[in-house]
Design a protein that fits this description.
There is one protein chain. By secondary structure, the chain is an alpha+beta fold. It has one domain (3-77). It is built from three helices and two strands; from the N terminus they run ββααα. The protein has helices at residues 21-34, 38-48, 55-79; strands spanning 3-10, 13-20. It has a two-stranded antiparallel ribbon with strand order 1-2. A hairpin with a 2-residue loop joins strand 1 (3-10) and strand 2 (13-20). This is Ribbon-helix-helix domain-containing protein. Residues 75-100 are annotated as: Disordered. It comes from Notoacmeibacter marinus.
């Protein structure tokens, strides 16, 4: 997979980062979902990243975090039905045994 160098303006100066195309596409999708420009998303990520993390890594980790959160949300939605209580075997009441 090819890594491509990109540039964006942050705080009035051009900043470069290197990303693979799939990460770039997911970042653009994330910006769209948040209703912000790509540059605004990169600025936000840049401002929040730890000082010992380079921008390219911070961008990749943001994509990973977003995809994990969406997968977890999809899994939770698929396994729970609103208003659905756990079912109990018929003929039994909670707290009693069938032989009592």
């Amino acid at each position: 997979m090819t890594i491509r160098k990109r540039s964006v303006s942050i705080a009035g100066h051009r900043t470069s980062f290197s990303l693979e195309d799939p990460f770039l596409e997911e970042l653009k999708n994330l910006a769209d979902r948040r209703g912000v420009s790509f540059a605004a998303l990169v600025r936000t990520i840049d401002a929040k990243r730890p000082p010992d993390t380079n921008l390219s890594s911070a961008l990749r980790l943001t994509v990973l975090d977003d995809l994990k959160a969406r997968c977890n949300a999809a899994t939770e939605n698929a396994t729970s039905v609103p208003g659905d209580a756990p079912s109990q075997p018929s003929g039994s009441r909670s707290g009693t045994s069938p032989s009592s």
